[in-house]
Design goal:
Length: about 350
Amino acid sequence: MFFSKFFKKDYLHFLAQAGKHLAAERYADARVDFLEAQSRCPEEAEAESRQIRDGLSLAGNHLAELNLEEGGHALHAGDLKKAFDNYTLARELADDPKLQARAEAGLKMVDEPQPAPDPQGAPARAVQNGSSCASCKDTGPLGTPLEDPGQGMHEDDRFFLLVQPLPGDLPARYCAMGEKFALAYLLIHDGNDAGALPILQEMLLSSENDIVIYEVALIMYRAGRVHECEELLNRALKLNPGNAACYLALVHLKADARKFAEAIGVLTRMMGQGILADQGQYMLGELHDASGNQVAALEAWSQALEIPSVAKPAAERLIPLLTSQGREAEAKFLAKKYLKGCC
C-alpha cells in the first residue's frame, strides 16, 4: 500500500508532462495531460489551476489552427464534408474568440452535405454519410482509410485528428491504446496494411482487444477476405457489445452482399442498445429503400423527421419519394420546414 501511494501519479505529474509536450509542440498529448491534471487538481491549488487552464487554452488553440488550415484545404478541394468536420472540431477546441469566429465563418461557407440519392441503391455510401464513424464517413465501403488530415504535422497530432470523427467513446479509447497501436493506425492511413498487420497481430497475442480486432477485420476486408472480416467483427462485438464502429462495419458488410434483411437485423440490434440511434433511424430508411421496400423506407424516414440531427437528410430523401407518389403537398411542406423552402 505504501509504495502504491508513493508512486501514484498526481496532478503535478500530469502538469509537468503536459508542459514537456507543449515545448515539443505535441499539442494533442499536451491537451490530454492537461485534462488529466485538471481532473486531479484540488480546489485550493489556485496557481496550478490557472496554469492548467492556460495550458488547455494554448493546446486547444494550436489544434484549432491545424483544423482551420485543413478545413480551408478541404473547402478549396470541394470536400465539403471534411471541411465541415474540421471547422466543427476547430470551434470545439478553440479558446481564442478570433479562432472561434474563423471556425464559425468556415461553417457558414459550408453546410454539412447530406446523402444524395444513390442510383445503384447501394446503402454503403448512405451509411457512410449518416454516421460519424471514421471507417464509414468520407471512405469507401467498410473502412477504406480516411483522407489524411495533413502531412508535415507531428505524428501524435496527426493521429489525434484522425481518430476524432470516431463515434461515442472511441476517440478517447483509440488515444489510450499506446504508441504501438498509433504507429499501426498511421501505417493503415498511409496505405500500408502489410506493415500494420504484424503490429496488430502481435498486440493480440498479449491480450484480446475489440479495437485491435476491428482494425484487423478492416484489413481482411480490404484484402478480399470477407468471411474472416465478418468473423473478426463478431468476435470484437462479443468482447465489447457497445462498439459502434463494429456494428456499422457489419451493416456495410451485409449491405455490400445485398443481404439487406441481415443488415437491418444488425442495425436494429445496434439501435436497441441505444447506440447511434439517431443515425441508425436514417440508415434504416436507406437499407429499406435499397432493398426496394419504399413503404418501409418512407416510414423509417418519417420517424427520422422527429430527430433533429437527421431530420434534414430524411426530408431530402422523403421529398422525391412523396413526389413520385403524387403527394406533392406533403413534399412541399417538408421542403418549406426542413430545407428552407428549397426542393
